[in-house]
Amino acid sequence: MLKAPTYLKASYCANCNLTMQNRTDCRGRCSAVNLLINNTHPNIQGLNGCLNSLCTRGYDSLPYADADVIGIGVFASYIMQCMFVVIIWFGLAAFYLYKQRHPVRYSQHQSQPLSQPEKSTTTDPHASHSQPPQPAVQRKGHQAVFVDFLVQFHKAQCYFSSTLQIASLSYGIFDTDMLVTFSLIPIATNGVLPVVFAFVLLFYHNRSTMDITILTVCTWALASLVYWILYSHVVPINQDFTGDGERYRAYQQFMYKLTALDACGGYSALAVCPRNFELGKRDISGASHNLRAMTPIIWSFSSICLVAILLGKVIKWRRGRPRKSSSGQSKYRQVKSGSDAEAETDAEADVHTSSETIQTPNPPLFRTHRAASIAYWITTICFLAGIGMQLSLLSIGTSLNMMDRSNWSFGQIVAVTIWAEPLLGYLYDEVKELLWSRFNIGNVPK
């Protein structure tokens, strides 16, 4: 019994220091000196004052969530991932509109050589045969540089998202924990929607190579696994979300987990507050509704688009397989007339040029460029709407005051600088392109 006041003092002090976002009262009302008269007698007035401070300070009485999951730097990195995809889409749209309005000027910029072919100056007649002149180096063009940036950014976001999903699998997602559920579901969908959106852009611009395809599918699979594990915890809790009892239960689980302390036996000392579960009840109810309603739409739409692209790549591969006749030539070419064969050769040359200059080719699922463009614009506009929904899910951490905006620790800075590599690479390539177009300096090293 003599140790009971000491344990009580330790519990209140630990609760204050570990939960309160504003710890000013921890040095006053909830200080150890104010909670005890001596080693055997607690200060009842001091305990009541500390408890009143904990129960009436609102969000300041609650702790921040795990900074590794919802820190300011990590949160900024999630937002940057979505915004980069949107910016890239607008950039590609601007190139498309410029090409439609100025086709002649666009083709001239794309075909202008970076350097002239080197002429042989030797008088030896045999030297020209052994050392042919070097062909002219073609400029990449601003659009090609921009699409290269898209490729590098997509790789960076796939590695970033995959790492987050692997870490989530070891974060206790198999237990029903509303705090973990609210924190990690937006991260899981952030590994699906922006990744598939960027992959759609790469596919349309003929840059979805096999390595990028495998990386995208693996990232989507990991994010989907984490998402459905977490979503299975949300649905049973809110099967009848129209009832006040279910709202209270979801809110109670979230608040208990957020303020649970080892000093209180794994429970929250805020449970003694008479109106503890009124704070932020509407915000948490709205966040739970968004998780249940929006995330299935985001995952389903992204997954359907990914499957459609994979089918399109299979069709493109099958159409590109050669069909040889008994003489070793393509049957398809044998039945062509002279003019048709010439037109076909021009079309193939155009496709080859588009793959080099990153012009927009026709996706294999469509016979006409008009149908491909319509499908592309409709799909990407839907993705933009999905990005808006995803940003609203990411804002759950800020709406519930779970984030310390001033805690720029080592890990938070690392999380933001993950996007520096593709961005700096794009700026360097763009500077090289500007040096050539403005100052005719084309020998800048890669």
Automatic annotation (TrEMBL):
The chain crosses the membrane at residues 69-98, 180-205, 212-231, 297-315, 374-396, 408-428. Keywords: Membrane, Transmembrane, Transmembrane helix. This is Uncharacterized protein. It comes from Lophiotrema nucula. Residues 108-138, 321-364 are annotated as: Disordered. Residues 108-131 have a biased composition (Polar residues). It comes from the Eukaryota.
